Amino acid sequence: MRKLYAAITVPRRPSRTGALMASALLVTLAVGGHRSALAESPVGCLAGDWIAEAVAFVTEETGVPPPDICVRSANPAYLMRLVLPAALDSTNKEIVAAVYVPATHEILLADVLDPGTPLARSYLVHELVHAQQFAAHAHERVSCPGVLEGDAYATQALYLRAKGLGDEAFLLQVLGMFQSACGYSD
Ligand SMILES: [Zn+2]
Known about the structure:
Blueprint: E1 2-11, E2 24-31, H1 37-40, H2 49-62, E3 70-74, H3 76-83, E4 94-101, E5 106-110, H4 118-135, H5 145-162, H6 166-180
Parallel strand pairs: 3-5
Antiparallel strand pairs: 1-2, 1-4, 4-5
The chain binds zinc ion.
């Protein structure tokens, strides 16, 4: 069974605006993987107004409500192993902020993110866009995974801008544009 994980990585100190410059995107195509996302993820879906707010934002911006998903909190180390164990060594300075797992309809958010902050919520917005893309089978039509990222980053940037975080929005917008040029990934 084919699994596709999409994740954004953030610096270990996401509170520093400048550190966002180091943000990188990680998209993994894991073919024939045997790992189960549910096996290690915490039990129970998160709930809260912040999730409803993110869903409402994505619905308004895209005109389509995201599919039903379960938002869970997960340890960054677990997220790291989930997306791409080989690509990130122990000396890296980034953490995986969020992952969408199509097979289980889960969004896993790093537990170091405070959902009270717009930045943390913007990662949920990003992954909700991925959930929408997979529900629409967009991943089967694009020329590279970066195209999916371009959309996700663009919507995430809109969210950040709406929250008054113009600098962060700009950086993610640029990052998304680079991704969607299909130069990064296979
Ligand atoms: Zn993404």
